[in-house]
Amino acid sequence: MKTKTRIVFGVFIWIIALLYISPLYFVISNALKGYEQVTIDPVSAPSPVIWENFVEAWNGMGYVRAFFNTFMITAGSIIGIIIVCALGAYMLVRRFPRVSSVIYIIIISMMFVPFQAMMIPLVKIASSLNLMNHLFGEIVIYVGCGVPMAMFLFHGFIKNIPFELEEAAMIDGAGTWRTFWQIIFPLLKSITITVAILDMLWIWNDFLLPVITISKESMRTLTLSYYFYFGEYVNQWQLALSAVILSIIPAIVFYFFGQRYIIEGIVAGAVKG
């Protein structure tokens, strides 16, 4: 690559990067300003820096309660998705190939059904099963919605694990259950972390499912709490943006520590499979 071409390419990359970073800059800078500075000069850096915006947003959102609800729903859903899909994919790969192929195709086909098409029947079923306004109910629904993608990734990954490993374990006297948990599951580390990260970002930031299944204030997630808080302080952008930052920080931290597994897991689980 010629020097001139390299320079042009580098400038282009920097422009794209700045376009992606600029919204985050505006959110952070305006969250640290007073009301007057936000309305008069939203572009400049905050002067002075007002940390009290975060304290007011924290209290106004009921952050601790909303964080607990979101954490319990997210953690429970991720654990459920991983257990169901890891075991399910293992059985589909290793048992009854013909029947398993049909079941696998049916499960994967649900990835192409938009959530909006399932909203009305989902609410009716959840209401009839008394799953509305319950953390457990949210977990059950998220597990059901998260199965297709996770099954696709686990299925492709398990297909690449040599069957000889399981045969050796069976010769040593291990049953199917023990073989899976002691031999197969430890090999699924990268794809398991990938599924956990992708589902965490989805569930943590999801708004559509909670807004149709949660009506009690005490059960609100962070996205719902922010929604109602923003409606109350729609004219005070410094408080609304402070609430945005408080809502997304946990997801950013989780993604930062697990990002290196995403590409590795997706490539191994989807491309090779």
Structure commentary:
The chain has 273 residues and is mainly alpha-helical. The chain folds into two domains: 3-40; 65-271, Orthogonal Bundle (MetI-like fold), CATH 1.10.3720. It is 78% helix and 0% strand. It starts with a helix and ends with a helix.
Short account of what is shown:
It is built from 14 helices and no strands. It folds into 2 domains: about 5-40; about 65-270, MetI-like (MetI-like fold). Helices cover about 80% and strands about 0% of the residues.
Number of helices: 14
CATH superfamily of the largest domain: MetI-like
- Report the strand count: 0
What structural class do the secondary elements suggest? mainly alpha
CATH fold naming of the largest domain: MetI-like fold
What can be said about the biggest beta sheet? none
Helix content: over 70%
Helix-strand pattern:
HHHHHHHHHHHHHH
Strand content: under 5%
CATH C-level category of the largest domain: Mainly Alpha
N-to-C CA distance: 35 Å
Tally of domains: 2
Instruction: Determine the mean pLDDT.
Output: 86
Q: Would you identify the regions where 5 or more consecutive residues have pLDDT less than 50?
A: none
